[in-house]
Amino acid sequence: MFAIIGIIVLFVLTLWLGAYQNKRNKAKNSEKQIDEVKKIDNECCGAHEVCEKESLLASDTKVIYYDDEELDVLVDVHPQDFSEEQIKQLSDIFYTLAESDVAGWLCSLRTRRIQLPDDLKEEAMMIVRERRK
Questions:
Q1: Which of 69, 76, 78, 81 is 20 to 30 A off residue 118, Cα-Cα?
Q2: One domain, residues 26 and 64
Q3: Same domain, 35 and 100
């Protein structure tokens, strides 16, 4: 009889210790993640997937031109209304950008309220995603 009670007590104690250990490990892991976020480059606040310098949601309203002032005629124009020449102009500028400038250019376009055609936007976003990895 005492053997059965002893086994039950040992089983309950094992369950309790396991639950305690899991809780302790979760707390350690969350502390480790917080430390990793704090160790991110000084230019990054840690709240974004990428550093602020490559963020497409940068809050800076200052417009930075990438030698593309001629695109200002496209402000508030829907991409479906672009002429072939305007699409070519956007494409030419996009394909001459350095990969490191694509995120900034997209942010500049967004700030200037210039939209890209879907296929060009997809390609630009692919470059930004690849650079984030």
A1: 69
A2: no
A3: no
The reply to whether 47 falls in a domain is no
The confidence band for 8, taking pLDDT boundaries of 50, 70 and 90, is confident
Looking at the 3D structure of the chain, how many domains does it have? 2
Domain span at 106: 52-132
75-116, pLDDT tens digit by residue?
999 999 999 999 999 999 999 999 989 999 999 999 999 999
Would you say residue 44 lies in a domain?
no
| CA distances, 129 to each of 28, 50, 124 (Å) | 31, 10, 9
Q: Residue 112's closest CA among 55, 79, 65, 53? A: 65
| For residue 1, pLDDT beyond 70 | yes
72 in Cβ contact with 112 (< 8 Å)? yes
Q: Would you say how long the chain is, in residues?
A: 133
Q: Let me know whether 86 and 117 are in one domain.
A: yes
Q: How far apart are CA 122 and CA 81, in angstroms?
A: 18
